[in-house]
Design goal:
The structure is a single chain. The protein has a single domain (about 65-285), classed as MetI-like fold (Orthogonal Bundle). The protein has helices spanning about 1-30, 50-55, 60-90, 100-105, 115-135, 150-175, 180-190, 195-205, 205-220, 225-230, 240-250, 255-285. About 75% of the residues lie in helices and about 0% in strands.
Length: about 290
Amino acid sequence: MKKSFVFWAFVGPAFLAFSLIVLYPFLTGLYYAFTSWNGVSGEVKWVGLDNFKTIFTTDKQFLHSFWITTKYTFVAIIFTNLIGFSLALLLTQPLKTRNILRTVFFIPNLIGGLLLGFIWQFIFVKGFVSIGQLTGWKLFELPWLGDEKTAFWGIVIVSVWQGAGYIMVIYVAALQNVPQELVEAAKIDGAGPWKILRHVIIPLIVPAFTICLFLTTSWSYKIFEVNLSLTNGGPFKSTEMLALNIYTEAFVNNRYGLGEAKAFIFFMIVASITTLQVYLTKKKEVES
């Protein structure tokens, strides 16, 4: 009895909070996915699998949003991890300003997504135009948020700029735990910087890659605030990611049941991909 009391005294509050904030909304949302509820009225009509049939047969925008989100996720994962790892390699060198630089690179992660989107919207619309007029560089004269291709890359730039600093911190912690004796031994054996990085450092920090790939995958698939504030899915819904598509369906079009059906499919996609990613990278950890 004493052990049971102690267990529930510690676990109970956390489990209650989890149930109220996560579990209950998830289960009720799953129920509404099989209804035609508009999110406002008290009438909830059961429609079975009709919402899911609509998504896969007539809702072309959802399929487009899935494709554009997948493409964005692939690009964002590569650039966020590449830049974050490069910054970590740089800032684990004996530089006098490395602590200041770590802070500077991490600060963008502290800015909220909506605020960040509005700041960069001003930069793309006003700042880049002014720089283009002064320098004549065509890169800054592009319609960054007014064209489908450039708007996509605008979202990528903002997201990578925000997330790379956080990923950098994880890689810095991993690199600092690499035994220097192994690095020194590799140098004595004649290994160059590239061989040391490839055959000594990277195999030892595979757990950090597992974490960072998991975080960047889930962040990228769930992108919402930057997408909403920067382009609002435009131009002509060409950059409408999955989360924004679900939000629009449920709270703008007042088709809450259909929105919940999309959210459930979205959950299954993200859960499957992240689980597979963790499984594969964990196998690499064992092999390393």
